[in-house]
Design a protein that fits this description.
The structure holds two protein chains of two kinds.
Chain A (H helix, E strand, L loop, with lengths): L3 H6 L6 H15 L15 H9 L7 E3 L2 E3 L2 H15 L4 H4 L2 H4 L2 H9 L1 H6 L4 H16 L38 E7 L2 E6 L8 H25 L1
Antiparallel strand pairs in A: 1-2, 3-4
Helix pairs in contact in A: 2-4, 4-7
Chain B lengths: L4 E6 L4 E2 L4 E10 L12 E8 L7 H16 L5 E7 L3 E9 L3 H9 L9 H13 L6 E8 L10 H13 L3 E7 L5 H10 L4 E4 L5 H13 L1 E12 L4 E5 L11 E3 L2 E2 L4 E9 L7 E10 L5 E9 L2 E2 L11 H24 L3 H18 L4 H16 L3 H18 L7 H4 E5 L9 E6 L8 H10 L1 H8 L9 E5 L7 E6 L10 H19 L3 E5 L10 H18 L5 E6 L2 H15 L3
Parallel strand pairs in B: 2-17, 4-5, 4-7, 7-8, 8-9, 18-23, 19-21, 19-22, 22-23
Antiparallel strand pairs in B: 1-3, 3-14, 5-6, 10-12, 10-13, 10-15, 11-14, 15-16, 20-21
Classes of the chains: A mainly alpha, B alpha/beta.
């Protein structure tokens, strides 16, 4: 089967029936796996597409004479709407989401690109961590008083933090990491709030990303030797 | 939300049809007013407080007080973190909701000054704290320092770059410099690239007021990451943008945040070809991120009729545009003078300031007097060789005018002040009379004014058909030195629960509006509301200055306002209240 990107290059111009057919081909790889048995697992129908469009969840189709025509963008929107419905979002929550995004954003949302390659979950924090690492590697940094709460590695009862506000919700950098040994010499560290990709396509993207990072790392290590 | 308005105000209302001309255009961007009950954006503030050894004494006292003030203003749903740094960085309060104010305040009170200044690391830690939770509509790091960054990263470019990077990811940065020993270039650069504000706080007493201002500004912020795109049409060329604005990678000008009640004015110099037919000269696109973090955009364009070049002179200059151009030029002169000082050419710098003063005075504009006073102050600092404070004053003045607050007064100290004297003798364009609803000549102030103006004033007043509380009406000044008398009616103080303060604020606002409409450039107020009307003097003074201050921040058509007190005791109270707001930036 073609990938989305290949399809985009063809600049398709579908009738409603054709759109429905393509969408049903593509849908399985974008739906969360564990939702295999729910109602939204069912195929898309022309009636549903018209319904979504009338609700403003998809762009209006183009008109050629009396016939409605659909583009690649409509496909992306349709896939995203179905995916979100399958994940349990209500129609009101989805609302204008799909029509407000660019094609690239839609692709990224579908393929998990946004979370995995372009922007980390908290871009601001990730950016500052980079800055901090840069500083640390540049010179001996000013001795930073360890953040009031050290990252808990083992359940040694740490002295209770000196601040009272800390008893309120998540006041500190309280990242919890789990270490998983993949092979001797290779570990994965997973933060407690990491969201594991739910669709096949997203999992593919993640694995690809890991392969890419590992590959680049190994390559640079070889060249530096 | 209604959209910001874009207005084009040309220096002349026409262009030449038969040859090329240069035309200055004032681009005024007016953010919409907030609704009556503004839903202010939720805030997530990261305070980063320098507690290096030099902060000892008054500075740290006022810094503590300022942070405490900020904590008290926050809603329980807002978020706050406090990071303190000297050569070590310590997150005093990690990012948390502001619902346990008592313990937050207690922690702030314990801040003690220590070693040297790891400014960058402090900022990074404060940024990280703020970034812990980005669910608020506005996320801002507020950094306060009095010293040079001397530990860790110290390269201003690198620091500004980091600040910019964080701003792009949704956390802006404002900076406050206290005293005369910090690096104003660094703190200005951080605020500019951080999509925030920069403040120069000459004396620590102003700290709480500045915090108040920053918080009020945040609460009224409607748009961040504001960009202006200029698209000259046909053969029109944008020869110059007189404001000092940073241009981004896509050629767009970076403007300050859109804040309700704070219009922005950008002055453009266009080269216009012969316009045989009227056509669009310029299109502009203004884009910003709204409270919901959605990108918004408005477009506007303008055209002018063409007349033969020989007739051009018949169309007078627009004074507003002329004045704004002059003010931008003065700001440039101030920057030039700083450059000269940096090269050690003190004498040349002094000459530049003198020349700028002569220029602005020769235009004879409403802002000529206050601007000349500002230039005098700069020159004096320079002559006495106080370079550190000269540089800060100067940079702050040109920063305010050409970047942050492009429209209106930028420095209240030169715009108005309380004085001791007799209201009837003031040589200003308009004086204000505090009177009753039938505009009678009774009452202390009114009788003095009527006596000095002569009987014609009473006749003129009788024709006005009375005046409602809080309103203002104008008559000629007759025998007074002032051209106009603006009459206003303030209610009696009944304990403060009957809207007295709002009514008094309205009096000031409506008098100033009336003065604006009559074309008065200078106005003298008596101390309205005290004595017989029974307002507590400090309350009356506070309303007088806050209302007038806010008004002057929005207009430069009135250059000077005096508050005339009749006795020394009143003056003292007015002076104290004035000092509180004189540091507004």
């Amino acid at each position: 089967m073609k990938t989305l990107q290949e399809l985009a290059l063809e600049a398709p111009n579908w009738s409603l029936e054709e759109l429905v057919q393509v969408a049903n081909q593509f849908l399985p790889q974008f739906l969360p796996e564990e939702k295999a048995h729910t109602r939204v697992r069912e195929d898309v129908t022309p009636r549903l597409v018209r319904h979504y469009a009338s609700q403003g969840m998809l762009d209006e189709p183009l008109k050629e004479g009396r016939e409605a025509r659909y583009l690649y963008r409509h496909l992306l929107q349709l896939l995203l709407v179905r995916r979100l419905l399958a994940e349990g979002y209500g129609a009101s929550a989805i609302n204008k989401l799909a029509i407000s995004k660019t094609n690239q954003e839609l692709e990224e949302l579908l393929q998990g690109g946004v979370q995995l390659t372009v922007t980390p979950a908290n871009p601001a924090l990730a950016f500052l961590q980079q800055v901090q690492q840069r500083q640390t590697s540049l010179s001996k940094p000013p001795p930073s008083v360890p953040a009031v709460l050290p990252i808990p590695v083992s359940p040694v009862p740490s002295p209770s933090p000196p601040l009272e506000p800390s008893t309120s919700a998540q006041p500190f950098i309280s990242a919890k990491w789990t270490r998983v040994e993949v092979l001797p010499g290779l570990e994965l560290h997973i933060r407690h709030d990491f969201v594991y990709p739910s669709s096949g396509q997203e999992q593919q993207s993640l694995l690809q990303l890991i392969r890419q990072i590992l590959f680049t790392f190994v390559a640079t290590r070889r060249s530096s030797k | 939300m209604t959209l910001p308005q874009i207005a084009f105000i040309p220096l002349r209302p026409v262009v030449a049809s038969d040859r090329a001309t240069t035309l200055d255009v004032l681009l005024r961007i007016t953010p919409p007013q907030l609704e009556v009950q503004p839903a202010r954006p939720s805030l997530n503030l990261g305070f980063v407080i320098d507690r290096s050894g030099s902060m000892t004494g008054k500075k740290i006292d006022y810094a503590r007080q300022a942070v405490c003030y900020a904590i008290e203003q926050l809603l329980a749903s807002d978020r706050i973190s406090i990071t303190i740094f000297d050569d070590r960085v310590q997150p005093l309060v990690a990012n948390t909701t502001a619902n346990n104010k008592a313990s937050l305040l207690r922690l702030v009170q314990q801040i003690q000054p220590g070693g040297s200044t790891a400014l960058h690391s402090g900022w990074v830690q404060g940024g990280m704290q703020t970034s812990q939770n980005l669910s608020a509509q506005l996320n801002r790091v507020i950094l306060l320092s009095d010293g040079l960054a001397n530990v860790g990263e110290t390269n201003p470019d690198t620091i500004a770059n980091d600040v910019h990077g964080l701003a792009k990811r949704g956390v802006s940065t404002s900076t406050m410099g206290v005293g005369d020993d910090y690096d104003e270039d660094l703190l200005t650069a951080m605020a500019n690239s951080g999509d925030g504000n920069y403040y120069y706080i000459a004396s620590p007493e102003q700290l709480p007021t500045i915090f108040e201002q920053e918080l009020q500004g945040l609460a009224a912020t409607l748009g961040t990451i504001v960009r202006l795109n200029l698209e000259p049409q046909g053969d029109v060329v944008v020869a110059d943008v007189l404001n000092d604005l940073t241009v981004d990678s896509q050629g767009r000008f970076q403007l300050p945040n859109l804040v309700a009640g704070s219009p922005q004015e950008v002055v453009l110099r266009l080269k216009v070809p012969a316009m045989a037919q009227a056509g669009d000269l310029l299109r502009v696109r203004l884009s910003w991120q709204d409270k919901a973090k959605q990108l918004q955009e408005v477009e506007s364009s303008f055209r002018l009729p063409g007349v033969p070049f020989s007739q051009l002179e018949e169309f007078p200059f627009n004074q507003e545009v002329q004045q704004q151009v002059a003010l931008m030029m003065t700001a440039r002169a101030k920057k030039e003078a700083v450059r000269l000082v940096d090269r050690g050419e003190m004498e040349a710098a002094g000459q530049v300031l003198q020349q700028a003063k002569a220029d602005i005075l020769s235009f004879n504009l409403p802002m000529s007097t206050p601007e000349a006073a500002a230039l005098d102050d700069l020159n004096q600092e320079l002559q006495q060789n106080r370079v550190a404070s000269y540089r800060k004053m100067s940079e702050q003045q040109s920063y305010s005018r050409s970047r942050r607050r492009s429209s209106g007064h930028t420095n209240l100290r030169y715009a108005f002040r309380p004085i001791l004297g007799d209201i009837t003798q003031q040589r200003v364009d308009a004086i204000v009379n505090s009177t009753d609803q039938s505009l009678s000549k009774h009452g202390a102030i009114s009788s003095a004014i009527h006596q000095a103006a002569g009987p014609e004033l009473e006749v003129a007043c009788q024709q006005l058909n009375g005046c409602a509380e809080g309103d203002a009406k104008a008559t000629p000044g007759f025998n007074l030195p002032a051209k106009w008398v603006i009459h206003t009616v303030c209610p009696r103080w009944e304990g403060g629960n009957r809207g007295e303060t709002q009514a008094l604020a309205q009096c000031y606002e409506n008098c100033l509006t009336m003065a604006l409409m009559e074309g008065a450039r200078s106005v003298a107020f008596p101390a309205i509301g005290i004595d017989a009307l029974g307002f507590p003097v400090d309350v009356a003074a506070r309303i007088a200055f806050e209302t007038t201050g806010r008004f002057l921040f929005g207009t430069t058509a009135i250059g000077q306002v005096l508050l005339v007190c009749r006795d020394e005791k009143t003056l003292q109270v007015y002076q104290t209240e004035f000092e509180r707001i004189a540091g507004w930036q």
